[in-house]
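[agent] plan:
  1. take the single chain provided in the ticket
  2. run structure prediction with default settings
  3. attach structure tokens to the ticket
  4. add a short note for the reviewer (M.T.)
[agent] executing step 1
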Amino acid sequence: MLLISLLRTVVPLVAGWIIVALTHLGFSLDSNTAQAAVTLAVAGVYYVVFRLVERTVEKFGGPAWVKGAAGALLGWAQPPRYKPTDDVAELVRQSRS
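[agent] step 2 finished; step 3 output follows
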């Protein structure tokens, strides 16, 4: 589960960086800080868009390939499933297995 969560966090960040690097989004970014902020914003939007596509297909139905493609563009075709628990030690043990 931990690997899936990490992939679904890192892939949108990398995608945001690539989108900004390739398009520059019409901005002339001389400042590393400004470029980092735009990259994070783009990555956030990227994540939200594809996550919303996943949730929409789950909730209202639709072609399974759309949900799979949206998930794959987030780094893993299926969202991670977590067992509800308040036991942090149990969560740590599960993440190591």
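[agent] step 4 note for reviewer: Residues 48 and 69 are 14 Å apart (CA to CA).
[agent] ticket updated
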